[in-house]
Amino acid sequence: MSDLDQWAGILDPDETILWQGRPDGGFALGISNVFSALFGMVFAGFAVFWMAQASQGDGQFWMFGLIHFAVGFGLVLHSLFWATFKRRHSWYTLTDRRAFIAVNIPLRGKSLKSYPINANSSLELIDGALSSVNFAEETKRTKKRSYTVPIGFERLADGREVYRLMRRIQAKDKGTSA
User: Fold this and answer.
1) Both 97 and 46 in a single domain?
2) How far apart are CA 75 and CA 39, in angstroms?
3) How far, in Å, CA of 96 to CA of 93, rounded?
4) How far is the C-alpha of 23 from the C-alpha of 133, rounded, in Å?
5) Residue 132 clears pLDDT 70, i.e. is over it
6) What is the mean pLDDT of residues 58-75?
7) C-beta separation of 125 from 160 below 8 A
8) Could you tell me if 20 and 92 are in contact, meaning their C-beta atoms sit under 8 angstroms apart?
9) 120 secondary structure, DSSP code
10) How many domains are contained in the chain?
11) In terms of domains, do 18 and 52 share one?
12) Whether residues 12 and 73 fall in one domain
């Protein structure tokens, strides 16, 4: 089965794949990850302290601290390793109309999301040794507030080329819509 056969039923008629790639799977740590990991360490550390104090009493009451320790330890692991794990299970495709992000997380399954690239798309190149190209945003909501998360192709060796291709798609869209 060819690569194009796998796209049957997904791509529009006459839609053409311009680029396909994967993000760099190396470990990367951002400042927000460090703060989340530190919070998890403090949370888990307090749970250990509480369990040590509670274990001096009678019974098994100290075991209630295990769930708090597990939550803190899980927060540390998630903060440090989740983004890298997710990138290692991601694939990117750019067509002459859309950007696709495919993810296949074990136990969670496969997902494929597409984002239109047109004259109104807000493109952002975050240049570096491994560049990222953001092309969409998603609003996340909590009970008290909402915040915007950029969506794009992360940690690409050829990020400038992908950005150039997206700018070409935008220019073509501007020329046909006028």
Assistant:
1) no
2) 8
3) 10
4) 11
5) yes
6) 93
7) yes
8) yes
9) T
10) 2
11) no
12) no
Q: Write the CB contacts of 53 (distance below 8 Å, at least 6 apart in sequence).
A: none
Return d(Cα 124, Cα 128) in angstroms, integer: 13
Distance CA 60, CA 10 (A): 56
The residues near 74 (Cβ < 8 Å, ≥ 6 apart) are 40
Q: How far is CA 146 from CA 136, 167, 172, in A?
A: 16, 30, 34
What is the rounded CA–CA span in Å between residue 93 and residue 20?
Answer: 4
Q: Is the CB of residue 90 less than 8 Å from the CB of residue 102? A: yes
Residues of the domain holding 138? 3-25+90-177
Cβ-contact 84, 14 below 8 angstroms: no
Cα separation, 175 vs 69, whole angstroms: 58
Q: Are 68 and 47 in contact (CB under 8 A)?
A: yes
Residue of 57 and 99 predicted with greater confidence:
99
Residue 125 identity (one-letter amino acid): L
Q: In this predicted structure, what is the pLDDT of residue 178?
A: 40
Neighbours of 173 (CB within 10 A): 18
Task: Please provide residue 113's backbone torsions phi and psi, each rounded to the nearest 5 degrees.
Answer: -120, 140
**Same domain for 164 and 114?**
yes
Q: What count of other Cβ atoms lies within 10 Å of the Cβ of residue 153?
A: 26
**pTM (two decimals):** 0.82
Asked whether the predicted pLDDT for residue 3 surpasses 70, the reply is no
